[in-house]
Amino acid sequence: MSSNNSLLLDKINSFKKDIEKVEKKNHKKHITTRRLSLISLAGFLFSFTVLSLNQLYGDKGFLSNDCLLIQLLENGEIITDFMTTLIVITIPATLYLIVFSLYESTKNEPGNQNNVKFYLYLFVIFSLVITTFSSALFFMAMCSFGVTLLVLNYGANRYYGYTKAWVRNRAVRFHIDKMISEHELNVFGKARFMVEIEEQSLQKKFYALVDKNIDQQQTDIVGDHISVGDATVSWIKGLKK
């Protein structure tokens, strides 16, 4: 193997390592935003269903105006309107974060243990919500936070292009592995001049791949910014109507 070939392969492998780092970083952000979106959507649908059933139940409904926690604090005369507002705001947000943290922590468990443990934790949280925080105001706040988290996570993924970047860099890594594999097979047992021809071919393929990745990256960035901007403008126009 010539020194030029070794240098070229070193460059390709170095580029591959950089691509792998970016791929892992964007994959983590892609997974995080996707899971947060799913959890917030589930929380919104659950809360919206409870509120809808409460409306269908009758004039007064089955939900009280204040949750059990606030009622206990009011009976003890240790709560103010500010504290009530703070509880209504912080508890739903905290619950979403707790569910997400539990979901992330149980993903490291082997086999089906992660699902069993997560659903067990979810049942405990569900029981706590029903007994302690159940009120119309609480579920309204859960709906609001659910929609907000869903929009923020979906918007962040779309605006910064986490999913696109992960898929794009993964494809580049696959192409690099394919190029190296084909090159190794093509130069095996070949004469020196044939090896040099394959080196030139590999170099052209590599730089063509790099140029294509750069162009695609710029296209994705501009496209993501434009699409999010257009969606925001359309949403604002819809609110005006």
The termini sit apart by 70 Å
Radius of gyration: 27 Å
Task: Provide the succession of SSEs.
Answer: HHHHHHH
Shape: elongated
Number of domains: 1
Q: State the helix count.
A: 7
Detail the poorly predicted runs.
Answer: none
Number of strands: 0
Main sheet summary = none
Keywords: Membrane, Transmembrane, Transmembrane helix
Q: Which helices and strands appear, and what pairs or packs with what?
A:
Elements: H1 3-57, H2 68-75, H3 81-106, H4 113-133, H5 136-160, H6 162-187, H7 192-240
Helix pairs in contact: 1-5, 1-6, 1-7, 3-4, 3-5, 5-7, 6-7
Describe this entry's structure for a reader.
The chain has helices at about 5-55, 70-75, 80-105, 115-135, 135-160, 160-185, 190-240. By secondary structure, it is mainly alpha-helical. It has one domain (about 5-235).
What's the short story on this structure?
87% of the residues lie in helices and 0% in strands. The chain contains seven helices and no strands.
Features:
241 residues; mainly alpha
